[in-house]
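One thing: can you check what follows?
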Amino acid sequence: MRLTALFVAAILWFAPSLALAEGEAAEIVAENRDQIEKPSRQTIGPVITALAASGDPMADDILSAWAEKRLVIRKADDVMFLAMPEGDGFALTTLDGTAAGTAAKGEITELKPNAGVRGLIGAALVQFTLSDPNPARRAEALTSIARDPTAETLEPLRASIADETDPALKARKERLERFLTLRFDPDSAARVAAIESLGSDTSLDVRAALNPLVATKRIAVAGEPDGQNVARTLTPGRNLPEAEAYDLLVVAELAPARLTLEAQRAALVANIVDGKVGGIPVAELDTQAARDRAYTALEAAGTVPVAATDAEVAAALAAHGFYEVFAEPDAAVTTAAMATLNGIDRKVGMMQAADLGLDALSLAAIYFLAAIGLAITFGVMGVINMAHGEFITIGAYTGFVVQLFVPNYTLSILIALPLAFAVTFAAGVAMERLVIRHLYKRPLETLLATFGISIALQQILKNVFGTQARPLTAPGWLDGALVFNDVVSISYIRIAIFVLALLFLMFFLYLMKRTRLGLEVRAVTQNPTMAASMGINPDRINMLTFGLGSGIAGIAGVAIGLFAKVTSELGTDYIVQSFMTVVVGGVGNIWGTLAGATMIGSLQKVIEFLNPSNTLAAQTYMILFIILFIQFRPRGIIALRGRAAGD
């Protein structure tokens, strides 16, 4: 009983204050009705602030209706209502939220605040939305403020931060508050502190917020640039073209427009009187100086429009000052913004270098996959296989065919990889048995034969699959990219190819170092005659080696087809880089192939970065560099001792 009595007493105690809060907005409107009906931005601010701070749930509705021109006065009894369109008229609600019937449009007078007052109302409404119980509405309010920031939203945003319970929204509010502070806060020290707090952030929105603070424009003045935040002084003819300098004078109305020779000649001809122009005989107008004097005389007489001769242009340039000034008038703010941007630029530069390194590694992995099979055939057998690119294409088309029958992309890729190896291994063995083995130690004939096979395979692929690109779709888990920040990212497909290249590196090392086949391949590579005398069949090793290299090319084709267009010319895009990779790295050496792929991939990315608008030029520069490199290291980065090295 005692607890019940206390509870009832508490309700009775707080009831009057709750009732007061609920009716306070209507009372504020009633007390300030004259100002609300005829508002002024200079005087209405305290009224709007009082409404926003009243705690009355109706304050939000009243302010919203006022901003949307739905705060009306009924003409019959001069009572103020909130109106909502309903049919041909309006549904009316009293300022305390009670329904009050309907009214026709002609029965009411709409209160229409001007743009300045609507701005103050909008800032007050922000306070409600930023503190709304619904997190989604608070997030929408932040998005709205970020999209259209104004000085009026700064203080409501600050006031809402302390009471924010959602950590993610609080972080967004604090970040947005810094952006608004550096732009709108009247306190220079606060703006500088906000700028300096962003120093470690390299996001695009940070740079977008700081760049306007260091934006400059060029001005021309007579004397000193009073009240201007000067970035640097400009000197006509040195760091400012004289023509541009004089154009600044004309725009600033400090000098007349320049007189062109054509306009001067036409004016002089039109004003010849008794054989004279401006008192100067026509016969004496044989120099530019004389013609300038004549035109000046016509100006003084008011006969021709005022225009500047060359001498007057030079005098005007000498008599005025030219400056590059910041659009932001506060020097402390621009100094802080420039220092922060310079720090961000340094970090962005390092991140761009890291991103370029990731791109180079991913490209090196692609070239390594494309070249590893060629390194085996070229290094062990000394065969220049111009059809190697077509084995890459066959592997890609194998993946396409598998996906026609296996709709699950993950499963189809897992099936396509070994199947592509088997298909291209068989094609390589057939090619070696039918053509290559008859041309050993005849490199020119081998090159011509494999080049012919390359053309024939391309035509067969066109006949079978057509000329249009065929899709080889990556699994969904390879979509997108691993994003570290706004600058550094790498696609998941590139990561997968990089991992695949590492797996092949480990597989090849195991094959060559831990298996009998690898032992025999190394023996044939170093000394085929001695290997044959030890019971190893070089002919069989050559066949298996060529098949192995071709099979690896098929797997590389599946990997490359996941991000490249699968056409009959797919392999031609990689054959040149594959040969360069093998030759630069050192023929027949897996570590040399890896080093060559890394070098060529890095070199290509650096050249493309320095010359992004011309990829053909980048390819040309890379080939020239490779030619120069081979002049100094003809056997590549890691030279192989044995038959492939020319021993």
